[in-house]
Amino acid sequence: MIILQKVGRKIDPKLDLTAYICQLQPVKLITLNYPLMKKVRHSVLQLFLILAISSSPLNIQAQDPDQGLLWEISGNSMPQSSYLFGTIHFISNKDFFMTKQIKETMKACKILSTETLMNHHTRNVLNRNAHLPDGGSLEDLMSPEDYEKVKSFFVSQLRVKRLRFDLHYKHLKPLVLSTTMTMLHLGNSVKFYETEFLKLARKYDMETLGLETIEVEIEAMNHFPLEDQVAALLHSVENFDQHFGDFEELVDAYKAGDLESILQITLRPSEDNYEFHRHFIDYRNIDWLTKMDKKMDLAPTFFAVGAAHLGGDNGLIKLLRQKGYTLNAVEIKRLNKFEEGP
Known about the structure:
Low-confidence stretches: 1-63
Mean pLDDT: 80
Radius of gyration: 19 Å
Shape: elongated
Number of helices: 13
Helix content: 40-55%
Largest sheet: 6 strands, mixed
Strand order of the largest sheet: 7-5-8-3-2-9
Structural class: alpha/beta
Strand content: 5-15%
Order of helices and strands: HEEEEHEHHHHEHEHHHHHEHEE
């Protein structure tokens, strides 16, 4: 999910949508993710790092024509190409890459289109939906023993002060707490692709648009039942090494531009909740198609959405091809750890 700045509103351009939510509360990041049911086997976090590098030379998506993060969209009588880029919500500094080639591709477009447009209304909806309803507390959702287990983990392992947990964290939804853990573990050594793209859009004087309202995304999230959020949170606390290992595996797939693996890793925990997968991925992809058509008719557009929306039978690549567009993977060449560009 990419953060957008509405013209005329004083919204910090350094914040992406997840970073904004975390500014509301003493957490560093909130990342959306798929459900782990009561028989949880894998990390919640991997599901939403959709919402998806060594220092040696790297060529991404050079081998498989149906894999890759950056795609050229042409055909259907368009005078100029548009582009589709799969994002990951956050990544460590050492793994982050933003090549001159990616920047130049984006600069050739007139519009940056991401998932949700950031404005005052969006901020209010996000703030409201990050919290348990009616001032509820995590204590109301689990046994005293499980609550103390979660609280002790945040205090001892993530260095959250007990008073801060009591005042703020315990009022957040279990989903929010689950997806905060990895970011807290990484500390300050992270980069947000959403933030970097927004900075470039401002620099290049691009229009910034969203593919949907925040209500659509929140509605999809509501297919993750609260009791399953609790189960997911407990699983992540009790199996944090696996939780973080899932994140690292997803990052490896992302760095390789391996859309198939990204989707497979993402879908592992959702085997028991296909309904959620349909609402959060499939239905939204289908809804975006008409909106992508209209934006590309207006001007060359750089679409930046979660990487898990790209692949699969209901992924954007296949859906756009079915509409008559030609999609070709663009090889991303990266020779230096931090490659500067315009």
